[in-house]
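Lab notebook, bench 4. The sequencing result for the construct came back, and we need a structural model before the next group meeting so we can plan mutations. Quick request posted to the team channel:

Model the 3D structure of this chain.
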Amino acid sequence: MDKKRLIEKTNKYIFPSYKRFPVVIAEGKGCTVWDVNGKEYLDFVSGIAVNNLGHRHPAVLKAIREQTQKLLHCSNLYYSLPQIELAELLIKNSFASRVFFCNSGAEANEAAIKIARKYAKDQGKPDKFKIITMINSFHGRTLATITATGQKIFQKGFEPLPRGFCYVPFNNLPAVEAAINDHTVAVMVEPIQGEGGVNCPSDTYLKGLRKICDRHDLLLIFDEVQVGMGRTGRLFCYQHYQVEPDIMTLAKALGGGLPIGAMLANEKLKDTLSPGSHASTFGGNPLAMAAGKAVVNTLLHDGVLQHCRKMGEYFKGRLTELEEQYSFIKEVRGKGLILGMELSSNGTETVNQCMERGFLINCTMDRILRFMPPLIITEKAVDSLVNALSIIFRNREKKK
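Done. Here's the predicted structure in token form:
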């Protein structure tokens, strides 16, 4: 196929709201994708942490295939078996007692914002509505969730923004304490900031947030849209830190490639969303639910989480070897298979050079190379990428 013509058609018919690379992906299997001309790439982006089980995972394909022969949609006016089964799986394997299904991470975070505010009203506290979020956070692209996002670049041009959010530095407990006032209802945080640069919390940060929220009677919301569903080597990232939120949001990898979102909440919030208070036409869609059930079962029972932890340590170790060799690598950080390599200058050229060599990686915050391969990635695949990076960095050193 003519890649150039396909790109021209995209530019002609689709809003240019994405800065796309000149690659037209046509097929994927496991950790590999192919473009329309048959060029092969090892995928270290995973659809931005969506394809955690890789492309065309047999269990996910089987679940989708079987569900297409039964029911694609029925509306939430009625009960649905796949929705019930996925809800039970999530509740039994998390802190939560209730789940609301939707179609994306932004919708899940909207639901979290709404339930936090409604809970305050139900408790007779109508003046509580403000949510504290973190600088360099990312929570979605709706008006409310870009306002919750602590990055002005995503808010520019969409003013006036909804009121009720304020921002403090990540990993800074005193700043959270200082931001609390009579209007504060919740603290919302990504356990690891993904889009913000793979910023990891200290060992005491999330526990500290829990204590602050308990002391001030605030809700604690964990946005696990990017780091949930096994990405860090546990089913949910919060499980590494021995702390439970009141609300957690999921999306991305939960659907195995299909659009899905979920907002989970604990027992004290179980009656907050009463009939008619919130809804989603496609939320809990039977096809997405069937895929989600296959994803969760595979993560829990097929050794994927253990493999992720093992490969995360190996991959991070290999990247650290590069850090020790090249002074322009400032830091390697991350947990499981969400890893970041901070450079002293823009990383876009490195991304492009990797692509030329058959590797898809990502750059965020201009200088941070982000690696999010499928959780089934192998040592051989990691070694091949690290070897390519080594050549790229060696050539960079020679140009100095």
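The chain has a mean pLDDT of 97.
Will bring this to the meeting.
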